[in-house]
Amino acid sequence: MNVLVTGGAGFIGSHFVKSLLLDDDIDHVTVLDALTYAGHVENLGEAFLDPRMTFVHGSILDAALVDQLMAGHSRVVHFAAESHVDRSLLDGQPFVATNVAGTQVLVDAAVRHQVERFVHVSTDEVYGPLLEGVATEDSPLLPTVPYAASKAASDLIALSAFRTYGLGVCVTRSSNNFGPAQYPEKIIPLFVTRLLRGEPVTVHGQGEHVRNWLHVADNCRGISAVMHDGVPGEIYNIAGGSDLTNAQLTEMLLEVCGAGPELVTYVPDRRANDLRYAMDWTKIATRLGYRPERDLREELAATAAWYRRNPERWAPLLQSPHALPVPAGV
Ligand code: NAD
């Protein structure tokens, strides 16, 4: 099986590529990544030693390149995106270009080349905030912020290629991922890299916002199950076992980083900060046998340990011109 992975030098994509190379069914993996501020070839590490992987530096917006690469691939797993909510509040245009137009370029080429399965990787944020209950795959799309709106649009574009042309599209929608080598702007790596240096962290509001936390390896197993056995035209929610308020998460991060509560400051809530996301993931559990396996506390400790061991991987990013000016929460 030959798989084209977009965004494979990013956080989740790189973990996914490395997990694919452990799968005996995989003959070749082609990674297409534009290496934006969030993409780093170092994330792929040992995958470069595997002759079954080819890395291509290029954009999903380059239709000629995408068309050329698509040939010979029976599976596409599409991660490439602008992925950070706070950046979308500053400027939504790159989100529309990459997430919406880029997805159209990919599905057009996938239709032409009769790709068997196109897995579009999306997010729980497309459902918008839920004050109570859980979102199922049939819940309405009510995204709040530009990032979530661009992902919702891309979900619909991908699914329209199934309805119009019969392309074997599956959509996965996961909750918040965490794990080693996440760009230090999302809340867990941001807080860990600050706490490890003894720097303060800021929590929005009273820390009452609720998120579900999913270890990146669990998400990759779910996405892989969908790539192998997902039913075309179907959406699969993927979540982990742990719903936490940001205050609870911060407390756990203080513990795993060995930092004290004096480093936490509560600041006024940011614009359009959805209070709670929650998803029902019964469908992927019952139909594809998915279960989250990773323990939250153990994996937060392992994640903090990774950042402690690998400062050369993240410290330069905090000084880069792409770093956000103020610490951002979720
Ligand atoms: P990331 O920001 O770490 O990585 C995105 C990757 O896409 C980078 O390597 C970047 O260089 C690449 N990219 C951006 N524009 C590109 C383009 N035009 N052409 C080719 N490559 C391009 O993101 P992530 O956190 O790994 O998220 C991956 C996917 O999963 C995204 O689609 C995101 O919406 C989705 N998702 C993420 C989370 C999460 O918690 N991180 C949760 C749910 C869904």
Describe this structure in words.
The chain is α/β, with parallel strands linked by helices. The chain is 39% helix and 18% strand. It has a domain at 2-177 and 214-238: 3-Layer(aba) Sandwich (Rossmann fold). Strand 1, helix 1 (11-20) and strand 2 (28-33) form a beta-alpha-beta unit. The structure holds nicotinamide-adenine-dinucleotide.
Topology:
Layout: E1 2-6, H1 11-20, E2 28-33, E3 53-57, H2 63-70, E4 75-78, H3 85-90, H4 93-112, E5 117-123, H5 146-165, E6 169-174, E7 176-178, H6 187-196, E8 201-204, E9 210-215, H7 216-229, E10 235-238, E11 242-245, H8 246-257, E12 264-267, H9 282-288, H10 296-309, H11 311-319
Parallel strand pairs: 1-2, 1-4, 2-3, 4-5, 5-6, 6-10, 7-9, 8-12
Antiparallel strand pairs: 9-11
Helix pairs in contact: 1-7, 2-4, 4-5, 6-8, 6-10, 8-10
